[in-house]
What we know:
mainly alpha
Amino acid sequence: MPANTVPTAIKQLKGTERPSRAKAEIQPAILAEVPDPPAQLGENGQKVWIANGQWLLERGMLAATDLFALHRYCRAVEDYLFFDEVIREHGAITGLYDEDGALKWTKLSDELQARDRAAATCSQLEAKFGFTPADRTRLSPAAPKKQSKLDALKKK
Length: 156
């Protein structure tokens, strides 16, 4: 099975695009503006949608085909924040007590596990979108392309 190929847009941002290695790929149309956040998102998710959607848009990386992934990311952020608040209020460990009130055993709360799953989803999608500092170091503004002599003549 061949290795995953890097999309041309990412290669351009990294400055590693080489026309000699260009492959035909389907390019979705880049959006002109960030659409309104989906109604299913809460207040935190809508804030993340607007901020990160704008960030992607400014880099020419937001297409209609990306909106569902962005929605999943915003939803995962909401879940993370929700479960984090529950853990702060109730703790990360739950216990089982017998009839006499003695502690029989303890376990990590379901909320902690759900928060950790949401954090993992966030991390995966942050890496795909380039939202983390480490992932941003792999992206750089594309070097301006030099105009060929032929293109210069065509413009005259």
